[in-house]
Amino acid sequence: MCGIVGAVGFVSPKDYVFNGLKMLDYRGYDSAGVAYFNNGIQIFKDVGSVEHLLSIVPETIDTNIMIGHTRWATHGAPTKLNTHPHLSFHEKICLVHNGVIENFKELRGFLTGKGYRFYGETDTEIIANLLEYYYLEKGEIIEAIKTIMTLVKGSYAFAFFTSEDKNTLYVIKKASPLVIGLGEGFNLIASDASPMIEHTNKFIELDDLEFGIVTKDKVAIYNKKGEQIKKDTISKDVELISHDLKGYPHYMIKEIEEIPQTVRRLMAKYYQDDKYQFDPNLIKDLEESDHIIFIACGTSYHAGLVGGRYFEKYDKSTSRFIASEWAFHPTYPGKKPFIIMISQSGETADLIHCLKIIKEHNLKNLIITNTGGSTLDRNAMYSLLLYSGIEVSVASTKAYVAQVTLLAMLAAALSNDTKLIDDLTDSLDVIYDIQDHYKPLIMKVADEIKDKKNLFYLGRSFDYFLSLEASLKLKEISYIHSEAIPGGELKHGPIALIEKGIPVIVFITDPDTAASMRGNIEEVKSRGAKVYTIATKSLSKPEDTIMVEDYAYYLSSVAVSSIAFYLAYYVALAKGLNVDKPRNLAKSVTVE
Length: 592
Ligand code: M6R
What we know:
This protein is an alpha/beta fold. It folds into three domains: 3-236, 4-Layer Sandwich (Glutamine Phosphoribosylpyrophosphate, subunit 1, domain 1), CATH 3.60.20.10; 242-417, Rossmann fold; 435-579, Glucose-6-phosphate isomerase like protein, domain 1 (Rossmann fold). It is 38% helix and 24% strand. The strands form five sheets. Strands 3-2-4-1-10-9-11 form a seven-stranded antiparallel β-sheet, covered by helices on one side. Helix 17 links the parallel strand 24 and strand 25 (530-536). Helix 3 packs across helix 4 (123-138). The termini are close together. Bound molecules: 5-amino-5-deoxy-1-O-phosphono-D-mannitol.
């Protein structure tokens, strides 16, 4: 995934584009670049951060038009040459791209045959040249756009301008997001509305296979046949798209601390007048289904593991799959399976692949996502939004809790089980308590484990699902190798890895499994492990590390996941790592 920003007619395009790139670098941060028009096309780009890019562009830039890009490398290594914007061979087209061009090799072959030469390895450079080729052949940019839309396979949001017109930005979209912000005497573009909200709250969202011609006073949208179409303008909830750090040093800690308001917002959205508020057709389809399949990746998959249990509580049979596994061996047990996909971003390629299969088999499906307008939101049969506000940190925290909360509410709606609402409300007190009282203790643990190479999380049942998530969070941002083991599995192999001083972090919040977990603690302690136990008060022992107030045990992923998130955060901080942008990762994984 990459981020695109652009402006035409804006009084200070440099400020807008650079601020926008900083906001969008959650979409990728291998390299960044900008292009503008001033005595011809000027391009500045390099590997590294937007801050670095800012240090290599002129202090003052006199221009009417600018595009910018922040990249997460797919085709071609993160090098300066592969960084966007890309200039075509005859220097007519300057283009940035978010997405993946599937047939770029074939298109490159075609262009090579026409005498084109390329300086980098990206699929994007091919498109800049393809556009140029047809622009020169047809003498008309709209004709060139229409032609390439029929030729290019894959996903794309393109933004470009030509060397012959410094007043016009062009945008084309298929399966990657692109939003236009309407101003007075200027217009803006970006991959999401957040960079523009400071300047306008009137937006046009391009749909797939549409393109736009954007000047400072006019925005015209066309379908793939080149017919101009009318599009509604929309506005956005400023709070939900704000990138303001609100005084926090990092997005991750801000987002952890937003967990209570995220849970509250979900309760307010989906539970009103003492009733769950879900689409009755969705509830009917879920009731009628005889098997529910949860599919997701990473943290969202961990939420699905918990969610599956919730539906089982209401007598639904379930199975849970990692998307990239299911896609290559799709199974749908039962006569009337119903698929629940979970994705914070709504753009995860592995899950989009699954949705294609799901649709081919006409299976009923739902996406639970934080991103309205995303590919999965637009293409699933039903969609439930998480309303968590934008999650910028690569490490997903508040979205995970929101996913679990929403799954719990949806499952409870099947039996109109309203006790859940009381249990969720109680769990908020536990979260506030952790925020108010336990951070110093968690920092101390972070300090003790920060130099370790390996560690383990242990839990059973809901505490095991939480351990999986805690372990992923720690390894993702602190680069410590960590594994989550179900307590009962220790003796089947992993216990061989327990040695003197290895940290083992144990969750004990479930009365049914507490006694067995205490046994596991003895097993690892006797082999020299340094154990840190997080327990609810009624299940705790004096030697435990953190003891939190009791809550409904099935909500551990809501009530105590903050402890795991803080721990990962403080370890990464203590190691001096880039908490919000861990190496090799992107916020949304748009490649399979
Ligand atoms: O946007 P999605 O929820 O589909 O993303 C799935 C995973 O890539 C994501 O949860 C990833 O594991 C996070 N970086 C974990 O913090």
